[in-house]
Amino acid sequence: MNKPLTHELTRELWTGSPHPLGATWDGQGVNFALYSRHADKVELCLFDETGRRELQRIPLRERTDFVWHGYVPTLKPGQLYGYRVHGPYRPEEGHRFNPHKLLIDPYARALAGAIKWSDAHFGYTIGHKREDLSLDRRDSAPFMPKSQVVDNAFDWSGDHRPHVAGNERAVYELHVGGYTRRHPDVPPAAQGKFAGLAVRQVLDHIASLGVTTVEILPVHAFVDDRALTQRGLVNYWGYNTIGYFAPDPRYGVANPVHEFKAMVKALHAAGVEVILDVVYNHTGEGNEKGPTLSFRGVDNHDYYRLAEDKRFCPLRPVLPRAAPGSGALAAGADRRALGPGRRRLPARAFPAGLGGVERPVPRHDARLLERRWRADRRFRAPAHGLERLLREERPRAGRERELHRRPRRLHAARPRLLQRQAQRGQRRGEPRWRLQ
């Protein structure tokens, strides 16, 4: 593990506060607060402006309601930092602490740098006979993006979020990176960025469509999958979140946080609501054999919903769910993510794929969510589903010709008798043709 250069910089640590979570600058210093219920020790790592050198490692001594906290005076916005969290490494019990891995603050407001994939990102040794039960001792700091302290100040004067009735809302889903990528009226530096959506010509076009609400595809900090980068590709859509409270740096020009706020303010001024598409059914850390980048190393047992066998982390509803307060785990991150949207970034945030659901839904309402989504999907079908919906409107002759070819494709490899039964509609009493 790389040793911090403590001889170059030594900062004192005050008690600080357990609230708010994350790094908060008050004009004179920075308060750091991190929830980790099962950790034995938490170290705050400060880096230089390049993010390459670890200048100092400060143990957070105070712990209140499972929140480790401390206040570092004289620190300013722009400071890069990360955490190393000590605790038991017992995957069979759901614990995957590994202090050799530098971790992104789950509540960071900004990230600096990009991930440079390496086997050192994994908490276990890849290729080891014990698989994820083994412990990897390589330092991941040189390959990790760093959390960054930000100044939350922004001029929201004159901003009013539009209020549109649900039955009058016209939602326009768009991708920040693609919507203005080649727009001739957007300056080249702002194309495919938050600043590009704030250009007057773009706003006028959106308003001319009769749109009341834009639903922005994921802009939270996310990582490009390792399998994609190995093939020279990137994750275009962003459904691989690693920081739910930080805008992704790739959509910023100089200051992504400030530019995101300016974009929201400009859309509001044009009379357009802003909804953020958020994905909670997985993170950039994947399942139990994924990398240790943030939540897994901070407190895997509490930040993820594990299987009955605590070793496994299924890619079904996986929600960061740690919440401070009375010491009990309270509402999920989906509920808390709406908080900064109301206070600092006045944009509504809804989990991805939930259609018109406009309230945080408890986990036990999963079936209700599915029913609502199924009832609503006909009216909010993605582009790739339109062909299926329009099939019902095709001329009957065309549909019959299409369906007549199906048995050959579906049953070409099956016994001839089964083919004949399917073609005659004699199998299990089913009709001859049926749309699926």
Features:
single chain, 436 residues, alpha+beta, Immunoglobulin-like, TIM Barrel, 3 domains, five-stranded antiparallel β-sheet, four-stranded antiparallel β-sheet, 17 strands, 18% strand, globular, disordered C terminus
Outline the structure in words:
The protein is 22% helix and 18% strand. The protein has 436 residues and is an alpha+beta fold. Residues 316-345, 350-394, 402-414 and 426-436 have low confidence and may be disordered. The strands form five sheets. The chain has a five-stranded antiparallel β-sheet.
Structural class: alpha+beta
CATH top level of the largest domain is Alpha Beta
Number of domains: 3
Total number of helices: 13
Q: CATH fold name of the largest domain, please?
A: TIM Barrel
Describe what is shown at a glance:
This protein has 3 domains: 22-148, Immunoglobulins (Immunoglobulin-like, Sandwich), CATH 2.60.40.10; 166-386, TIM Barrel (Alpha-Beta Barrel); 394-429, no CATH class.
Task: Summarize the topology.
Blueprint: E1 22-25, E2 29-35, E3 41-47, E4 54-59, E5 62-64, E6 67-73, E7 80-86, E8 89-90, E9 95-96, E10 111-112, E11 146-148, E12 171-174, H1 176-179, H2 194-197, H3 200-208, E13 213-216, E14 220-222, H4 226-229, E15 241-247, H5 256-269, E16 273-278, H6 295-303, H7 333-336, H8 338-343, E17 348-351, H9 366-376, H10 383-390, H11 396-404, H12 406-411, H13 416-424
Parallel strand pairs: 12-13, 13-16, 16-17
Antiparallel strand pairs: 1-2, 2-6, 3-4, 3-7, 5-6, 7-11, 8-9, 10-11, 14-15
